[in-house]
Design goal:
With 345 residues, the protein is mainly β. It contains four helices and 25 strands.
């Protein structure tokens, strides 16, 4: 199955009048730890409706503020042969678009990637788009990236996001308590300081003891998207490929990229927190325009809810599998060409 998600090309349009990406460095952070069981039971009515509406394998993202019903929601089907992605943030173009008053949520805050690893199991990765505050799990761990293989709970500022695995009929549960107790216990694995030679895994005590003894959900913290000052090619790495850039004024650049950078992800855009694009971008290029990341052996270009779009030829895409020699155009301001260093089979 093709991993391309094309849309008819539209003319450039003015950037929406959204507020700034974040409100500033002086905000007092809210407590991040919370009681997942109490939260689940209190909000079980919309959770149950979501489970009933989506009885195939997938991930439902339900965003809650200070009311019983979710303020935003999105369902992602889990497919064996492809990774599917979505974007969460305050920008109106995000598939999971949250309240404009959510002070600790950026315009484009996170990319969520979902893929089935079997016919009844999935894996999801959440990438913070190098925002000011990141996000946190239910134990209060500050995160910049995480991998999950089951239902999990996160806080983005004062919002709680439930990543709910679907695929079961909720009618078998007699109560909200029964439904929560059927969720496998979460095991929190801390790998934020990991490196290829020193993984530093630390398993935290499970916050939930739901589910059967042999069912566990691993919530693995991961290193975040590569910081802008970092080298794209590590000192002991061979290049996985080259990124060739052509700006709208004809300037050309080339960057060699290693395996670790591609696994963590690279950001393209005009904002300071992006790796690539500041030299050639203007207001047509979004502050955070595109994430380039490798997932399960595939190199994916994921448009991060940009204002003026990402294109291959005349076709707009939200997600695209990059192959060697392929060119993509970011808002008419930056052409990106990927050239692999090894033959692609």
């Amino acid at each position: 199955m093709s991993n391309e998600a094309f849309f008819p090309r539209q003319p450039h349009h003015p950037i929406p009048q959204n507020s700034e990406t974040y409100f500033g460095p002086n905000l007092q952070r809210l407590p991040t730890r919370f009681d997942a069981r109490r939260f689940f039971i209190h909000h079980y009515d919309p959770i149950r409706r979501t489970l009933a509406a989506h009885q195939e394998l997938g991930l439902a993202l339900l965003v809650f503020a200070d009311r019983p019903e979710p303020i935003a929601g999105h369902w992602i089907a889990a497919q064996i042969d492809r990774t599917t992605s979505t974007v969460l943030g305050r920008h109106s173009a995000c598939a999971v678009s949250v309240l404009s008053t959510a002070q600790e949520v950026s315009l484009r805050h996170a990319v969520i990637c979902v893929r089935a690893v079997s016919f009844n199991c999935l894996r999801a990765r959440i990438f913070d788009l190098r925002t000011q505050f990141g996000f946190a799990d239910e134990t209060g761990r500050d995160l910049r990236g995480v991998t999950i293989d089951g239902t999990s709970f996160f806080r983005f500022g004062d919002l709680i996001v439930l990543a709910l695995v679907t695929g079961e009929d909720p009618s078998s549960y007699l109560s909200a308590e029964d439904a929560y107790d059927a969720i496998p216990a979460r095991i929190f694995v801390d790998a934020q300081e990991a490196s290829p030679t020193d993984p530093k895994f630390r398993v935290l005590r499970p916050h939930s003891q739901g589910g059967s003894a042999d069912e566990r959900t691993f919530v693995r913290s991961q290193l975040g998207v590569l910081p802008p000052e970092a080298d794209l090619l590590g000192p002991d790495e061979l290049p996985e490929g080259q990124i060739h850039l052509t700006t709208s004024n004809g300037r050309r650049f080339m960057r060699e990229v290693g395996r670790s950078a591609l696994s963590r992800g690279l950001l393209f855009g005009r904002y300071d927190r992006c790796d690539i694009g500041r030299r050639g971008g203007n207001n047509e290029l979004s502050r955070v325009h595109l994430l380039l990341v490798r997932d399960r052996g595939e190199l994916l270009a994921i448009d991060t809810a940009s204002s003026n779009g990402s294109f291959r030829g005349e076709k707009q895409f939200r997600q695209l599998k990059m192959e060697s020699g392929m060119e993509i155009d970011l808002a008419g301001e930056l052409v990106v060409r990927w050239v692999s260093s090894t033959p692609e089979i």
